[in-house]
Amino acid sequence: MANKRQSANAIKFYEAKSAEYDGNWHDEFTRRFLSYLDIRGGQNVLDLACGTGLLTFLLADKVGKSGSVVGVDVTPGMLAIAGQKKMLGGDKYGNVSLHRADVLHLDETDALNGKAFDVITVASALVLFPDPKAAIEHWSTYLKPGGILAVDATHPRNLISGMVLERVARRLDLPVPYNRAWSQSESTLQAMLESAGLKVESVFTVDSQAGYGRRFHDIDKWDDFFVETVIVKDVMRTFASNDIRRKAQGIYKEEWEKLAIDGKVEEVDAVFLGIARKREYTACAISTKARLTIWQLPMEQDMYQRSMSTASSSRVAVAVDLSSTRRPSHRQKSPCVTAGRANICQAQHTCLSYPSRRAL
Ligand SMILES: C[S@@+](CC[C@H](N)C(=O)[O-])C[C@H]1O[C@@H](n2cnc3c(N)ncnc32)[C@H](O)[C@@H]1O
Questions:
Q1: pTM
Q2: Distance of CA 51 from the midpoint of ligand 1 (Å)
Q3: CA dihedral (321, 327, 330, 332) positive or negative
C-alpha cells in the first residue's frame, strides 16, 4: 500500500482546519450522505476518515445499542473533537469506538484485526488518496461478503480553485493534499469501484453539497482565488518560497483561463455518490471432465486456500460469483476458455447443477 506521505500531508492540512470544521455545510452533507444508505439496527459499520465524527454519530444513532460504529482518522485534532462528542454522549455512544490510524494501512490497527463490517462509509475523503483503486481494494478486505461500501467523489467543477491548485501543483511537481483529476463523472466513480472488484449498486449525483448549486466567476477574478488558495490557505507551506509562488501565479492564471467559457468560469457544487457491494463467492467442487480451469477471482483468501487443499485430483476448485445476475452462456464451444466474465457464468451454471453443490 501507499507510503505515509499522504497521511503526513493530510495531518498538516486538517490539523489547521479541525477547530472550524463543524458548523457549516459538512453537517448537512453528512446527513444527506446517510439518507442514501439503508443502515439498520444491529449493523457493524466502519467509518473511514471519520474526521470530527459528523457521520460517525449519525450512524451510531441508526445502528443502535446492538450495533457498532468504528471511526478511524489520522488527524489528532479532528479525532479529538470526535472524542469529545463521544464523551458528551455518554452511554448513548457506547457503541462508538474511535481509532487514530492511517486508513491506507488499516492492518496496523490491532482493533481491526480479523474484523469484517456490514457497511464501510468514506465521506468527503476519497479524493484525498493518491491511488483510489488500491485504497478501495484495501478497505474492501474489511467488508463482509455482500457488505456495502458508500463513498463520494468530487464533481470536477466543485471547489474550482482547488481543482486549479491541483493542476498547478502537478505542473510544478509539488505535493498537493488531494487527487481529484480522475473524478470526472458518475461513470468514472462507477469504473473506479468496479476496477477495485466491487459490484456497483448505484452511482448518482448529489447537487448543492455546500448549498450554492452553480455559480459563475469572472475570468479576471483568478487573482482573488490565487491569493485565497495559494497564499492564505497554504497550510502545508507548499508555495512558501517566492520563486515557487511566482511560477505558481503564472500557471494558476493559465489554468484558470482554460476553464472559462465566454469570460466566465463555472463552479458546480456537486459530488458523485457510489454505493457498491462486495461480491459473495463460494467455492464448489466440479468434475475435471468439464475441463474447467481455475480462476483466481478476488475471493476470500482463506476460502481459496481451503478449496485448494480439499480439491481432489479429479476436481478443481472454482470461485463462483453468486451475486452475478448474468445468465450462463450456452453458446461457448467449451467451458475451458481462458478468461472473462462468461467463464464465471459458465462455472456458476455448472456449479449450481452439480448434485452435491458442496461448498468446500
Ligand atoms: C474532509 S474530511 C471528512 C471527514 C468526515 N468523513 C466528514 O464527512 O465530515 C477528510 C478527513 O480525512 C482524514 N484523512 C485524510 N487522509 C487520511 C488517512 N490516510 N488516514 C486517515 N484519515 C485520513 C482527514 O484527517 C480528515 O479528517
A1: 0.80
A2: 5
A3: negative
Closest C-alpha to 181, from 205, 151, 154:
154
H or E element in which residue 276 lies:
strand 271-277
Residue type, 115: K
Q: Ligand 1 pocket check: which of 103, 109, 138, 159 to mutate, most ligand atoms within 8 Å of Cβ?
A: 103
Superfamily of domain covering 5-277 = Vaccinia Virus protein VP39 (3.40.50.150)
Residue range 251-307, pLDDT digits in tens: 999 999 999 999 999 999 999 999 999 987 544 434 333 333 333 334 444 444 444
Domain boundaries, the chain: 5-277, 281-353
Please name which of 2, 31, 3 lies closest in space to residue 137, comparing C-alpha atoms: 2
The backbone region for 121, taken as left when phi is positive above 0, alpha when psi lies in -120 to 50, beta otherwise, is beta
Cα 260 from Cα 217, distance rounded (Å): 9
